[in-house]
Amino acid sequence: MTTTAPSPAEESTRLRRSVTGPLLFLFILGDVLGAGVYALVGVMSDAAGGMFWLPLLVALAMALLTAASYAELVTKYPRAGGSAVFAERAFRRPLISFLVGFSMLAAGVTSAAGLSLAFAGAYLGEFLDVPAVPAAIVFLLLVALLNARGIKESLRANLVMTAIEVSGLLLVVVLGAVVLGRGDGDLSRLTQLPDGVGLGSAVLAGSLIAYYSFVGFETSANIAEEVRDVRRVYPRALFGALLVAGVVYLLIAVVAPTAVSPAQLSGSTGPLLEVVRAAGGVPLRLFAVVALIAVANGALLTMIMSSRLAFGMAEQGLLPSVLGRVLPGRRTPWVAIVATTAVAMVLTTTATLEDLASTVVLLLLFVFLSTNLAVLVLRKDRVAHSHYRAWTALPVLAIVSCLVLLTQQEAFHWLLAGALLAVGVVLYLVTRRVSAPTEGSVASEVSSGTAHTG
Q1: Known InterPro entries for this protein (predicted)?
Q2: I want to staple 205 with a disulfide (CB 3.0 to 4.6 A). Which of 35, 47, 317, 380 is the partner?
Q3: Taking CA 16 as the corner, what is the angle to CA 10 and CA 17, rounded to the nearest 5 degrees?
Q4: Is the dihedral of CA 319, 354, 113, 365 positive or negative?
């Protein structure tokens, strides 16, 4: 249910409402159509063979369930942004709100580590023959230097990068169709599963990785206050962007295994490059540049937002105050940049791209569980304006879907996520002993950050 009349909350905002429906759609699409798909096609193929289109469908359905909860909460509280805000409003427990916010921070740093490994894989290999981990560390260092200079990414810049990312994916679709059209493809691969793996296991394992490709939509809640007629526009842009991303991903999932064997895809750190190679006619280095730009932009955006989130939480007394220090000239949070970059560098040496992607999903599943529960808890909270309201069954099913995906996580992913959250809890408790945070400060600051460029 929506309305076109602005609410008092919308009218009184100090922010400029400059984000139109099309811009919001492209913002969400850019976040969802992130760099992950350029590297994770091979991982999904390893889990589900040529049938990884099915886990993608399942993951899309799961993402849409949780998106319904965000649509309700964002349109119900148009001045609030972010899952921690909803947790604060619903549960009134500062530690819970902090953990939701810190989970987003940890997911962002972990995602950047995974993207750095993707950058250092086969796409970079078209230009340089260097070991992956050292190359990933150097890449993160370069990202940190750019971050420290004060890189600002506007929606227009996001539009350009989205165009590059989408053009690369559409090129793969066209080239895959060319391979199939000339008789070199094999449609029967779309029903092939890995040896010794049943359909149910393949779908669940593949869905866990596929889910990573759809997350990113949740960050749109952070700009709700800058969207014109947010209660009417937001649900349309959110669901529309997810569906368009789903169509693009499914096209990739159809053409990739028909053009290239699933075994070849799963054995490559640049799986889409294998499709380009099989089709011919397009310089491999040209496509590698497109892929590297997509991955680099995703990592840069993620680290910018992660460092700003750490800085904001330090400013509110939720993390050590040293993270709030800025460079005198650039006025960038250099300590937060150094800290988040250092953690990402360590993560590149301890886990693979698949492990890091799964850990990002694990951390975000806790965030999504909180948001889906918050929808149900806040149903008793009435507001003066009309808003989108999800069918009650949707957040319930979303909770079930999150729990199902949690059961697919390996012990190492729980250990890695648990270690990151444990560090956060320790920092939180130590910081509280030094300076007690003001009530509601968690929600006011974590809403300014994001966790994933998918």
Answers
A1: AA/rel_permease1 (IPR002293), APC_superfamily (IPR050367)
A2: 47
A3: 55
A4: negative
